[in-house]
Write a structure and sequence with these properties.
By secondary structure, the protein is mainly α. It has a domain at 4-9 and 21-60. 66% of the residues lie in helices and 0% in strands. The longest helix is centred in the C-terminal third of the chain and has 19 residues, at 42-60. It is extended.
Length: 68
Amino acid sequence: MFDLATIAQIQILAYNGNMQVLTASQMRTCDERTVSQFGISFQTLMENAGTATAAFVLQQFPAAQRIT
């Protein structure tokens, strides 16, 4: 699993401005292939997706604070 800084760097390197929007079915197929072809567990895949989402949100809203 990657930390937030690493995820943010990977995201910057991977993004080339040509993002494709997938349907839920297409994304499910991508997830299933990733699990079967690369041996990444579904749980790890989802944890990494959540971490990447959090990194993106924090990057977009740097003044964000935790509200309790």
